[in-house]
Amino acid sequence: MMNKNFSKPQLLQIKVGSMKSYLWILVVSMIFGVSCEESSSSENSDLPTVTTTSVSELTSTGAITGGNVTDGGTSPVLSRGVCLGTKSNPVIETDFKTSDGKGNGSFTSALTNLTPSTKYYVRAYATNDAGISYGKEISFNTPSGEITPPAILDADGNSYSVVRIGTQDWTVQNWRSTRYNDGSVIQKVTDNDTWSNLETGAYCSYDNTEANSADYGNLYNWYAVNSGKLEPANGGWRVPSANDWKKLAAYLGGFDEAGKKMMETGISYWVSPNSEATNTSGFSARPNGVRNYFSGNFDYLTYRAYWWSSTNTSTAYAPYYSIRANEIQLREVTESDKTNGYGVRLVRDVP
User: Fold this and answer.
1) pLDDT digits (tens, 9 = 90+) for 31-74
2) Dist. CA 302–CA 22, nearest whole Å
3) H-helix or E-strand spanning residue 317
4) Measured distance CA(10)–CA(274) in Å, rounded
5) Domain spans of the chain?
6) Are 309 and 320 spatial neighbours (Cβ–Cβ below 8 Å)?
7) Which residues, including other chains, have CB under 8 Å from residue 195's CB and lie 6 or more apart?
8) Which tens digit of pLDDT belongs to each residue from 88-137?
9) What's the 3-state SS for 197-262?
């Protein structure tokens, strides 16, 4: 019987009846040897298996990619994302990387602040206790284009910086106009009871302190948003709908990941700056607080950021979006009383 550990030297000791038999055994041994060689060079099954998602929504300064962890290996996947570089085979130790959750399954990675007319290399990664795995590398070239869209003005002449995030332009500061785009004055309400009973457009500064408007923008009720006159009359600007906010969140890796990429860093507006905050999107969210619909009181300055959506949920309610200092993800609340006072950002599709 053939020894299961048979090797080439053992083959010479086997007695066979003919040259034909010898050749047959030689072929079998060669096949066996190749099979062993392929097995020994296979990937470490202890590591995760991850694939890289094709690049989409490519602009001069951003792109969407991601990956899919199809097998976690022998221990839970601790981190996942993509690594990016201008040289082939980027690695998480030395190149830029995104952090897009943990565990098996697909994930989306937003690449922002890219340089126009540049070739990049990207590949997904996943880690577990056994080490790091990478997906197949993908290369892409960013087109030439405008890095910083031009600033815009409101009806008061206030200037707002603009950041391009994916296929959208967003104002970097919260809106603080005291007039509509037709020049008419927006009602300013300081009295708490009056604010609570409004069904027409109004605004205020947080705590009725003008200095807060300079740092955090004004607070508007939804009726001012619904006027359709907060935004400039031209240029394609609008108060973001629920779909606009969802598109932003998706581009930044989903609601759980978007907050850290939107939260301003380096300046002590937030009461407890979170070490995970990166502001890599350039959105520069500040904690503008809220004016309560029920009492007219002000709450959460330096703790929470709030913005309206233009979407109308019902007669009394509309959605808002927020980031909290202790819960850094972007939050969606689909029903909020329209008398609440929240901040306003503007958005447009990239021209």
Assistant:
1) 333 333 322 223 678 999 999 999 988 888 889 999 999 999 99
2) 84
3) strand 317-324
4) 67
5) 8-40, 49-141, 152-349
6) yes
7) 189, 202, 204, 221, 291, 293, 296, 339, 341
8) 999 999 999 999 999 999 999 999 889 888 999 999 999 999 999 999 99
9) CCCCCEEECHHHCHHHHHHHCCEECHHHHHCCCCCCCCCCCECCCHHHHHHHHHHCCCHHHHHHHH
Inter-residue contact 251 to 239 (CB < 8 Å): no
Radius of gyration of the chain (CA): 29
Q: 113, 147 in Cβ contact below 8 A?
A: no
Residue 77's identity, in one-letter code, is: V
Strands 347-349 and 168-171 turn out to be: antiparallel
- On whether the 49-141 domain is CATH 2.160.10.10, my answer is no
Tokens of 256: 């759980």
Rounded average pLDDT over 339-347: 98
Tokens 């619909």 belong to: 293
Give the tens place of pLDDT for each residue, 235-290: 999 999 999 999 999 999 899 999 999 999 867 789 876 778 888 899 999 999 99
